[in-house]
Write a structure and sequence with these properties.
RecG/Mfd, two-stranded antiparallel ribbon, alpha+beta, elongated, OB fold (Dihydrolipoamide Acetyltransferase, E2P)
Length: 148
């Protein structure tokens, strides 16, 4: 059972981050299990969403709006054949505005909430769908504790 700082490629900075997670030895690393799993393998129709759960969705952008208010925000109306959801962003970046064009298709993953416009997702992960976009993952995604 070796200390993590003795492993090749683990320097002082990495060892300090691991220690914040109570990972001090190689045994600790072996038994460091995910705290949760996310299912990103199945695209769910928008009429089957439950508030408080996270889903993988695909849809077409129907509208993009920059609502007035104290905080600058962007709202994207996304729709599939079964329903619609609003994607809300408070941290707007160029890559996001480049993808947020009416008619573009998006694959998104995030938690469903109830908002002013019905069902909403705040800062979901987004991917522009093109002819080169791979199919969804085929396995569950492990979620580990973070040192942030």
């Amino acid at each position: 059972m070796a200390a993590v700082h003795q492993l090749q490629g683990v320097g002082a900075a990495s060892a300090a981050l691991l220690e914040k997670l109570n990972l001090f030895t190689t045994d600790d690393l072996l038994f460091h299990l995910p705290r949760d799993y996310e299912d990103r393998s199945t695209i769910i129709p928008m009429n089957q969403l439950t508030v408080g759960r996270s889903y993988l969705l695909e849809g077409t952008i129907q509208g993009v709006d920059f609502p007035p208010g104290k905080r600058k925000s962007m709202a994207i109306g996304l729709q599939d054949d079964f329903g619609k959801v609003t994607l809300r962003f408070y941290h707007i970046y160029k890559g996001l505005t480049d993808r947020a064009k009416v008619g573009n298709r998006l694959r998104i993953f995030g938690e469903v909430r109830v908002g002013a416009r019905g069902l909403e997702m705040y800062h979901p992960e987004i991917q522009l769908i093109t002819e080169h976009t791979p199919l969804p993952q085929t396995q569950l995604t492990a979620i580990y504790p973070s040192t942030e």
